[in-house]
Design goal:
alpha/beta, Aminopeptidase, 2 domains, nine-stranded mixed beta sheet
């Protein structure tokens, strides 16, 4: 796929995926269009040689795989991993707040959001709503208002003269979005029911029971810069990697068994039934290789490329990087290394990746956090620790990680896509 087509598809994917539920659904639709068959965990699976399958959990995590052969203990898997969630503002259960003449929403901060970037943005609401139909069934449906229906206005500098000297945002009092004035009647459940009827015309709504809703920025993703060198969007961390992995799997062919895992809750530690620190991936893999000895053999003949964003060298804050490990935007994906296993990379997995990248003439960079700064982590060491698969952590260089709007290179993602396609077709990994 040409870079221009790749980026055009990426710019379409990002706004369709305002929440992990929507990201999973967007990938689900792409996989079905690509000939993948949906499996359901509560059913018995029949897996055929030459098949293409996927399964979701909690509507927010997805595993897709191809089976050109069924002897996984001999072939191993070519795995790619990413996460579907991003830092955001989530509505509290009793979200309606009426203060000083305004209808507002009570929110909880999800993950390590850069809070001040949520001020003065055109916000909408999306997520999952669970309801009881008039026939008595309890079902869940996705909802997305799309229009900008909320805003968190900043405080004028006249009332905060120290604003440009740095200020904090109180998440309980100062980040509540405004919906409308109290002269307008407002009931959140009625609003949700009305929106669901618009989006799901065949849905016989009885009672709204509960919801998992998030705010998001309605500004669309865009190519920016004088020469369109950058991609600017919400949720690049980590929908950028989800999209790259998805496209690589769709174009992988049928040479080797391949698997893409995109899990929820990475931003809060991954400990959930559908997170990387939960049983989802192992449940799927053990259904495919139920024999314990063959399962271990399959894992040790496999490799996982865990893809998450990496901190690019910011020209205004160059001292935040180790000068020998300062990745540049549009200079290739980054191998992440940490002596304390915050990343799962080792010399063997890094060597395999470097060799594949060299075959694609794709540049490789390396990131190590400054020794006097704390290091983040990814699904890489968690997944490796759970199933024992050799793993490398890589990432696409990014500015403004965890901002409401992040910036990455318009060349990097396409280059990584080509490397991952070659990885999915790789015969030999590490010779023992």
């Amino acid at each position: 796929m040409k870079r221009s087509n790749f980026n055009e598809n990426l710019l379409s994917f990002l706004p369709l995926s305002p929440t992990p539920f929507h990201a999973t659904d967007t990938m689900r639709k792409a996989l079905i269009a690509g000939g993948f068959v949906e499996l359901f965990e509560q059913n018995t699976w029949v897996i055929d040689e030459g098949g293409r399958y996927f399964v979701t959990r909690n509507d927010s995590s997805l595993i897709a795989f191809t089976t050109p052969q069924l002897t996984f203990d001999q072939s191993g898997w070519r795995m790619m991993g990413a996460h579907t969630d991003s830092p955001c503002l989530k509505l509290k259960p009793n979200a309606q707040v009426d203060r000083f003449g305004f209808h507002q929403l009570g929110v909880e901060v999800y993950g390590g959001a850069l809070l001040h970037t949520w001020l003065d943005r055109d916000l909408s609401i999306a997520g999952r709503v669970t309801l009881k139909t008039k026939t008595g069934d309890i079902v869940s449906r996705l909802v997305d208002f799309k229009d900008p229906i909320a805003v968190v206005p900043n405080l004028a500098i006249h009332l905060n003269r120290q604003a440009n000297e740095g200020f904090s945002v109180n998440p309980q009092e100062e980040i509540l979005p405004i919906l409308c004035g109290v002269e307008n009647a407002f009931d959140l459940h009625e609003l949700l029911a009305s929106q669901l009827k618009k989006q799901h015309t065949d849905l016989d709504i009885g009672t709204i029971l509960d919801f998992e809703l998030s705010l998001y920025d309605t500004q669309p993703a865009a190519l920016v810069g004088l020469h369109k060198e950058y991609i600017c969007s919400a949720r690049l961390d980590n929908l950028l990697s989800c999209f790259v992995g998805l496209q690589a799997l769709l174009d992988s062919g049928q040479q080797r068994p391949c698997l893409l895992v995109c899990t929820d809750h990475e931003e809060i530690g991954s400990l959930s039934a559908c997170g990387a620190n939960g049983p989802f991936l192992e449940d799927v893999l053990r259904r495919l290789t139920p024999n314990p000895e063959q399962y271990v053999q399959a894992m040790q003949r496999s490799m996982l490329i865990s893809a998450d964003n990496a901190h690019a060298l910011h020209p205004n804050y160059a001292n935040k990087h180790d000068k020998n490990h300062a990745p540049a935007i549009n200079k290739g994906a980054v191998i992440k290394v940490n002596a304390n296993q915050r990343y799962a990379t080792n010399s063997e997995t890094a060597s395999v990746y470097r060799d594949i990248a060299a075959e694609e003439n794709y540049e490789v960079q390396c990131f190590v956090v400054r020794s006097d700064m704390a290091c983040g982590s990814t699904i890489g060491p968690i997944t490796s620790g759970e199933i024992g698969v050799p793993t490398i952590d890589i990432g696409l260089p990014t500015f403004g990680m965890h901002s409401i709007r992040e910036l990455a290179g318009s060349k990097d993602a396409h280059g990584l896509y080509k490397v991952l396609v070659r990885f999915t077709q790789r015969d030999k990994l590490i010779t023992q």
